[in-house]
Design goal:
With 350 residues, the chain is an alpha/beta fold. The protein has 13 helices and 15 strands. Strands 2-1-3-4-5 form a five-stranded parallel sheet, sandwiched between helices. Strands 6-13-8-11 form a four-stranded antiparallel sheet. A hairpin with a 5-residue loop joins strand 9 and strand 10. The chain is elongated, with a radius of gyration of 26 Å.
């Protein structure tokens, strides 16, 4: 959701314009003069500024001058509002770098067209996207504009899955990338001896299933819902556009995907060289970290699934968990695990 800073000294115009923009779906912050507006912008950079020219304390020209000179604010799209129609004022505003100019009184359509036009023109890829808070949609919208990817699918529905429902099976041909909107998904590899090994564990804000598309090979593991979950599908054609059509979009998309690759490599190295106690501790920490801010949060995972994540037998896992419980590092119940001493688990070397 884009944030607009509205700087206007007329209370009636300020409140009514803010209400209209809010109803349209924008987040609106307001300021009654230029000085307050600049302070507001420095506290949190807006996506666009709508600013009156004739104001007390600091006028609109002064506000724009500060925006142009300050590294934190330079480049923010800027729309002037004024009741004056003299060409000299418009010329001065444009010379200072204003992006548009609205003369009061303006119509609803004039305002919204100017705002959407400026935001589309100045849309850029953000340094990062919060994928757990709507960031996927923001990234795809920005990618469509920045990368000129008009062919991206508009279908971003969340597809519900029941607990234990298969997403795909080992050997299936890949047709899409999956994004976890809610719930948890595990990817599983079954050995020739019938032993199950969890190759990945994915929660809200994470992608999976893309390695087969990259390699143009069938899936080498199966994916199944651990809980009731919701997935957003990114079709194969969209995946190719995001990777190949625009360098900036490609770089950002790879950044969003790459974290899982690094984690997977670390997991495989740990399984190969670490002791059972170290592997169990590392697995507990990986499961604990997304909920670290909630003191009441617990790890809810079957012993069989956790053993498959660790790469050991269930009996060995249960024995190690019992030792951690006796040492006061975790609290163990038949269905849940609460990490009590994460720093001790993290610092431990066995």
């Amino acid at each position: 959701m884009k944030t607009i800073l509205l700087i206007e000294d007329d209370t009636f115009i300020r409140e009514n314009t803010a209400e209209l923009l809010t109803l349209t779906g924008y987040t609106v912050r307001t300021a009654e003069n230029g000085k307050v507006g600049v302070e507001n912008a420095l506290a949190a950079r807006p996506d666009l500024v709508i600013c009156d020219i004739m104001m007390p304390v600091l006028d609109g020209f002064g506000v724009l001058h500060i925006f142009n000179q300050h590294p934190q604010l330079a480049g923010v799209p800027f729309i002037f509002l004024t009741a004056k129609t003299e060409r000299a004022d418009q010329r001065r505003g444009m010379e200072l770098g204003a992006d548009d100019y609205l003369t009061k009184p303006f119509s609803e359509n004039e305002l919204l067209s100017a705002v959407s036009g400026r935001l589309d023109r100045f849309r850029h890829l953000q340094p990062d996207y919060d994928l757990q808070a709507g960031g996927l949609g923001e990234f795809l919208d920005d990618a469509r504009t920045v990368g000129n990817l008009a062919g991206l699918s508009a279908d971003r529905r969340a597809h519900p899955l029941r607990r234990k429902q298969d997403v795909y099976l080992e050997g299936d041909e890949p047709t899409r990338v999956y994004f976890v909107q809610s719930g948890r998904i595990k990817t599983v590899k079954t050995t020739e001896g019938g032993k199950e090994l969890i190759t990945g564990f994915y929660g809200p804000g994470e992608f999976f299933g893309y390695l087969a598309l990259l390699g143009q090979t069938p899936h080498i593991d199966s994916a199944v819902a651990v809980d009731d979950s919701e997935l957003v599908y990114i079709p194969q054609d969209d995946f190719s556009q995001l990777l190949l059509r625009n360098p900036a979009v490609s770089q950002q998309f790879i950044h969003l995907l790459a974290g899982r690759v690094g984690e997977r490599e670390q997991q495989l190295l740990a399984m190969a060289y670490s002791s059972i106690r170290r592997r169990v501790a590392d697995t507990l920490l990986r499961l604990y970290e997304p909920t670290a801010d909630d003191p009441e949060a617990t790890i809810q995972l079957t012993r069989e699934d956790m053993a498959a994540m660790v790469g050991t037998a269930s009996e060995s896992l249960i024995r190690t968990l019992s030792e951690f419980n006796q040492n006061g590092l975790i609290e163990l119940t038949p269905k849940n695990i609460r990490v009590l001493e994460p720093e001790k688990l993290r610092r431990a070397h066995w």
